[in-house]
């Protein structure tokens, strides 16, 4: 159960480290530095692509292999925005962010990221990431609810 707002504030140093962690994903992928994914994810991380009709990927090796398998279909640029960090009592933090992917042909797609990050001996790492495509305005709402 989430804590009250005053109990879930994240220390500035941790907040900045988590935001940088989430931001580095795009740099590593866009640069082809997939050998550095261990700097972003725990060894047993789950990369949930269920909303794209795919099975979740388990482990850094599976995440890396999936990126290599996409090859030229990968976006040429990943942009992360609107990063919001909240902490929970078990030492994990939840992170919501938006992502834009620009393809080589100039087309663009948008996703929402829902991450669980954990503090490890090597710093913050993503242990769970869920991607949800953004395909309809207003979250699919058509009238006030």
Q: What do these coordinates show?
A:
The chain is of the alpha+beta class. The chain has a single domain (5-135), classed as Roll (Nuclear Transport Factor 2, Chain: A). It has two helices and six strands. The protein has a six-stranded mixed β-sheet with strand order 2-1-6-5-4-3, covered by helices on one side. Strand 1 (41-48) and strand 2 (57-58) form a beta hairpin. The chain is globular. The model has no long low-confidence stretch (mean pLDDT 91).
Shape, principal axes of CA atoms: globular
Strand element count: 6
Summed over residues and divided by their number, the pLDDT gives a mean of 91
Low-confidence stretches: none
The CATH first-level class comes to Alpha Beta
Query: How many structural domains in the coordinates?
Result: 1
Major β-sheet strand ordering: 2-1-6-5-4-3
Distance linking N and C termini? 26 Å
Class derived from helix and strand content: alpha+beta
β-strand percent reads 35-45%
Give structural attributes.
single chain; globular; Nuclear Transport Factor 2, Chain: A; NTF2-like_dom_sf; Polyketide cyclase; 145 residues; six-stranded mixed β-sheet; alpha+beta; 21% helix
